[in-house]
Design a protein that fits this description.
The chain contains four helices and 15 strands. A seven-stranded mixed sheet has the order 3-6-13-8-9-11-10. Strands 4, 5, 7, 12, 14 and 15 form a six-stranded antiparallel sheet that branches. Strands 1-2 form a two-stranded antiparallel sheet. A hairpin with a 2-residue loop joins strand 4 and strand 5. The two termini are about 20 Å apart.
Length: about 300
């Protein structure tokens, strides 16, 4: 099914040097969606289903929610592939001076934002990486959320960047982007504001090498984390991505990602017919499909 989502340009902001991870929620306009197709496993996500509205007989139907690989122009792509590790279905991201992402468009209205669960395993830190510095802003793992909002609140700088992004790619700057990351020096639960735009903020979940080489499982309150990072209530959640990048430090990095699950808060009433199937469903579970579901 086709989901009517708000698509947002991070690609343009890479072009203007805003930040290495601003292109994370491009609808892939002007970007390669099949770059290095011979080395990418992107079908692992295409078979995952979500619960949509009940049909006329009261039976819920399933809709496919796709994750798409997006490569950034002028950048070498990170390789993603489905694997089994430690008895888990996982996606391995391998970066060699590269940056690209796997992303999914969706729409969850603010009142329905619930818990986000995910896991990752990182074998080593990226030498020289420091997400507080624009020229070394790399991370072995990122789980990234993009949100709608009132762009009239943009500062003059952010408004200019958004207009430039729109002119270059046909898509404006996302109102807000929240990243869950693994830092080098910053304390866990601290917030790093991007050096080029304050519309990107990184919430540090892990820092340093103390918890490397093990699976780490998280369940995060999306609304609470957004409010902590931005100091205001969130708008609609319109995209999720994962990304392993080492293009700034010119190093190698790899990490494994487990399933990403987003649970909506239960609703007392069924949404109006005019709402999309995604925004009306009781639960949203954009799960990584196991390797057996690949083509």
């Amino acid at each position: 099914m086709t989901l009517p989502v708000f698509e947002f340009s991070l690609n343009a902001l890479r072009v203007v040097g805003v930040a290495c991870c601003l292109p994370l929620f491009v609808g892939c306009a002007g970007m390669e969606t099949s770059a290095d197709s011979g080395s990418q496993d992107v079908n692992w996500a295409s078979a995952s289903t979500v619960n949509s509205d009940p049909d006329s007989n009261g039976i819920e139907t399933a809709a496919t929610v796709k994750w798409v690989h997006c490569a950034f122009p002028g950048k070498k792509s990170t390789r993603y592939r489905a694997v089994r590790l430690d008895g888990r279905d996982a996606v391995l991201g391998e970066s060699d001076s590269s940056a690209s992402m796997l992303r999914q468009n969706l729409r969850i209205e603010p009142a329905s934002l619930g818990k986000l669960s995910f896991s990752w395993k990182v074998p080593k830190m990226i030498s020289g990486a420091d997400m507080t510095q624009r020229d070394s802003d790399d991370s072995p793992v990122r789980v990234v959320l993009a949100f709608e909002g009132d762009r009239s609140k943009f500062s003059a700088k952010n408004a200019m960047l958004s207009e430039l992004a729109l002119a270059l790619t046909g898509e404006p700057l996302p109102y807000a982007t929240l990243m869950y990351v693994w830092g080098t020096h910053s304390a866990p639960e601290s917030v790093i504001i991007n050096t080029r735009t304050d519309r990107i903020r990184k919430l540090v979940l892990e820092s340093g090498s103390g918890r490397l080489n093990r699976w780490l499982d998280y369940e995060r309150d999306v609304r609470a984390d957004y409010e902590k990072a931005f100091g205001e209530a969130p708008g609609a959640l319109v995209g999720i991505a994962i990304m392993t990048d080492s293009d700034n430090t010119r190093q190698q990095a790899k990490a494994w990602y487990g399933p990403v699950n987003l649970m909506k808060k239960p609703r007392d009433v069924i949404a109006a017919p005019a709402m999309t199937a995604v925004s009306a469903k009781v639960s949203q579970a954009p799960e990584f499909a196991p390797p057996s579901l690949q083509d």
